[in-house]
Fold:
Amino acid sequence: MTVQRRGAAIDIKGLRKEYASARGHVLALDGIDLSIAAGEFVCIVGPSGCGKSTLLRILAGLDHQTTGTIAVQAEGWAVQNAMVFQDSGLFPWMSVEANVGFGLMTRGVPSDAAAKRVDAALKLVGLTKFRRHFPHQLSGGMRQRSAIARAFVTDPAMLLMDEPFAALDAQNRVILQAELVRLWEETRKTVIYITHSIEEALLLGDRCVVMTAQPGRIKQIVDVPFAHPRDLIALSAAPEFGKLKLDIWRVLEDEVMRARAEIEA
Structure:
């Protein structure tokens, strides 16, 4: 597998998403304007129900905006994306290597070429020894690493991640955060990462996009000043990290309280 060191540039203008529910029309996203450079790692944080996952699904082509435009460009190839969910989504009847290679099979990649790319992807995430295991034989962290390998094996320009480590215990979460940063530093894919955690957004991202409570709008975009390569444990203990985390919480706090009040009303 040849992993490209380039990603997709994304330009979102005036994006709005409205859908019908039992209570009438619901405005999920409103007036989203966001430009993302090729190879950038952008984290999106916001209260529950603010439309973060809806935005990601629209970018993945799994849903459609009501109005607005999305332009995605990647030099020299057809734009592809891969998505990693909170649940690994592995097929339980398939081995790790079969799960990782599934996307290549559906694209008609010849078996010899696919096998080489699967080998490289498994090595990338440290799962070569577990290639013949089935999902039920793996820990939660290993299942998520399998899902990440499945995403990388297709060599996408754009990697979309919807709280992929939220269900893991704290130790595994730290390990996989560091693993993801390492992979990104090697490949420079364009990554859009959804999280509820301000700390995670600052550990991983180049920028942190803070969203309002429903309807989701962009409230503020914060540049993350910490250089790469990053030692995530050391960074999380730095005073400047704590200050920036607090600053973003002050931006987000009112939106979290407003979302909570609407749920309890």
